[in-house]
Specification:
The structure holds two protein chains of two kinds.
Chain A lengths: L5 E5 H11 L4 E4 L6 H10 L6 E4 L3 H13 L4 E5 L1 H17 L3 E9 L5 E5 L4 H6 L8 E4 L3 H18 L2 E7 H5 L1 E5 L60 H16 L2 H4 L2 E4 L6 E5 L2 H15 L4 E6 L1 E3 L3 H7 L5 E6 L5 H9 L4 E6 L8 H11 L1
Parallel strand pairs in A: 2-3, 2-4, 4-5, 5-8, 7-8, 11-12, 11-14, 14-15
Antiparallel strand pairs in A: 1-9, 5-6, 7-13, 10-12
Helix pairs in contact in A: 1-2, 1-6, 3-4, 10-13
Chain B lengths: L1 E9 L4 H14 L3 E8 L7 E9 L13 E4 L2 H7 L8 E5 L13 E5 L1 H8 L5 H13 L4 H11 L5 H14 L3
Parallel strand pairs in B: 1-4, 4-5, 5-6
Antiparallel strand pairs in B: 1-3, 2-3
Helix pairs in contact in B: 1-5, 3-4, 3-6, 4-6, 5-6
Classes of the chains: A alpha/beta, B alpha/beta.
């Protein structure tokens, strides 16, 4: 049924369709439950659109291929789940260091290790932020509906192209396999951002030039521009440096290009916050459950609202501070043993009490669990 | 109108397939729908179930904690889900494979010998559609035309005679 572009689609399919709408032209990956359908769909569709799909020997090679393709000028991505995401961490660090745009989708399942291949979890929240070593500032998005799988997939590419950085899109097993009605936007409704390219002649080009925006124009391979990429800390020319001033400049560049733009990067949704003493904070699939819980609780005259970060890293700190201004209690609901709650506690300081509703038995939380917590607090 | 449905059985019984079918038909019928499956690592033989919500309003949580309708295709599913049915809800039992009887007085039980009917029509594969037929007849959640229209789209690779049998299965299911 294509009437008004309305479709019944799975989260994974929507994510892959969003990537196609964003202009993905390379996918390198290794199939893993529950993310496999993303690879399946792109294996079928990419060659039809002049793109390339390669099934690599493992996830380490997958992310390496994705970085290489991006350096050659392609919008590139991979999709994986916890075990594969762990394997990708080393090369993800390389991509942060060399400022290579790419999108990594992690359809989360239970862990640690092989964990629960077919069961839901949100336990990679912190790995997405701190997975690789060193100081770096990742952009991580968390989708809560099939429509958001599509929209955030587009946004992930736009952010990666704008800030020359990997962007992590977190889904989860339920969302990946869930089917819902979605509206696929027309081509001209999808706004795309492309990486900034050098305008100077090749002999003046510095691949990591210091600029006021902290983003350096990026030349593709084979366009006459010479550049050198290394995981070693490098100077504006891309060559290893040991000079303290240059080391500091490089790390500041990586930090500031993100931290100076949090208002552009961070988005969130909120509901019923005007008069709420209790704020439920939830992201990903749990935000849907929380939404219903909040509606049930309000029906019973509890003054409770919902705060849903769509960008979880960097965390929408200013918005949460505003949301908690008149609150006594923040309830953080997540499918893990308590990860994002630490960030919320940090932002809430001692002014607002913070409590968690955690579920980590492979099942999705029910609205009742959150409603009970709200009731206990009153 | 809000109808939370759980379909449960063995992998290979068309449990997931029926769930997708119901969600699609709900969409064709201009309802809001969600579907999500739960299954083990194996393709066949393990347990499989799925949650489908058909609603006139937008669906917040996709979780069906207390189903309005439960379709059980095998014995283990009966034991697992029968106690969760919302009071006043409906239990559809595939009596060809489930011999347990519900002791609950607060639910309506609809017995459907789905395997037997499916084999009478021509193939065991359509037992799921016999159950679906009974479901839409009793709940009215989805128009029968919508589900029949959706058959050819969801099972686009099926042969015409197979689609015809599916259609018959839905109609026969509505007789229970």
């Amino acid at each position: 049924m294509s009437k008004n572009n309305i479709r019944l689609m799975q989260g994974n399919e929507a994510c892959a369709s969003g990537a196609l709408a964003a202009g993905v032209s390379f996918f390198g990956g290794y199939p893993i439950t529950p993310s496999t359908e993303i690879a399946e769909l792109l294996a079928r569709e990419l060659p039809k659109n002049g793109g390339h799909f390669i099934q690599m020997e493992d996830e380490i090679a997958s992310i390496a291929a994705v970085i290489g393709a991006s350096v050659a000028g392609a919008k590139s991505m991979t999709a994986t789940s916890g075990p594969g995401f762990s394997l990708m961490q080393e090369n993800l660090g390389y991509a942060y260091m060399t400022e290579v745009p790419c999108v990594v989708v992690n359809v989360q399942r239970g862990g640690p290790s092989t964990g629960l291949p077919t069961k839901v979890s949100q336990s990679d929240t912190m790995q997405a932020k701190w997975g690789t070593h060193g100081d770096y500032f990742p952009i991580v998005l968390s989708a809560s509906s099939v429509q958001e799988c599509f929209d955030m997939s587009v946004r992930a590419f736009n952010l990666s192209e704008k800030y020359h950085s990997p962007v992590i899109l977190l889904l989860d097993e339920v969302l990946g396999h869930m089917r819902e009605k979605i509206r696929i936007p027309e081509k001209d409704e999808v706004q795309l951002i492309e990486r900034c390219k050098p305008t100077v002649p090749p002999e003046w080009f510095q691949p990591f030039e210091l600029t006021p925006t902290h983003i350096s124009p990026m030349a593709g391979y084979g366009n006459g521009y010479r550049f050198h990429y290394t995981g070693l800390t490098h100077d504006p020319f891309g060559f290893p440096t040991g000079k303290p001033s240059e080391i500091r400049e490089k790390l500041d560049k990586l930090m500031l290009k993100i931290t100076q733009n949090v208002d552009d990067i961070c988005t969130h949704k909120e509901e019923f916050l005007e008069d709420s003493h209790i704020v439920v904070i939830a992201y990903g699939i749990t935000a849907r459950v929380a939404q219903q819980a909040v509606r049930i609780a309000r029906h019973r005259r509890f003054k409770v609202g919902l705060f849903q970060p769509e960008t979880i890293w960097p965390f929408p700190e200013k918005a949460l501070k505003r949301a908690l201004e008149h609150a006594d209690l923040a309830i953080v609901a997540e499918l893990n043993q308590g990860q994002l709650i630490h960030e919320v506690s940090r932002i809430a300081r001692s002014k607002v009490k913070v409590q968690g509703v955690f579920r980590y038995d492979g099942e999705i939380m029910t609205p009742t669990e959150i409603v009970n917590k709200i009731r206990e607090a009153n | 109108m809000y109808q939370g449905i759980i379909v449960a059985g063995f992998g290979g019984q068309g449990v997931i397939s029926m769930g997708i079918m119901l969600a699609y038909a709900g969409m064709v019928d201009n309802k809001h729908v969600t579907f999500f499956p739960a299954y083990g690592a194996e393709m066949r033989g393990g347990t499989a179930n799925c949650s489908v919500i058909v609603s006139t309003d937008e669906v917040d949580s996709p979780v069906v904690g207390q189903p309005d309708s439960l379709l059980v295709m095998n014995e283990p599913s009966f034991a697992k889900f029968e106690p969760t049915i919302r009071p006043g809800g409906r239990l559809f039992i595939n009596t060809s494979l489930v011999s347990s009887k519900s002791k609950r007085k607060d639910i309506q039980v609809i017995d459907v010998p789905a395997n037997k009917v499916a084999e009478e029509i021509g193939t065991l594969k359509i037992a799921n559609m016999v159950m679906a037929g009974a479901l839409i007849k009793h709940t009215g959640a989805i128009a029968r035309d919508a589900i029949i229209k959706s058959l050819g789209i969801v099972y686009s690779r099926a042969k015409p005679e197979m689609l015809k049998m599916n259609e018959t299965a839905i109609k026969r299911g509505g007789e229970f």
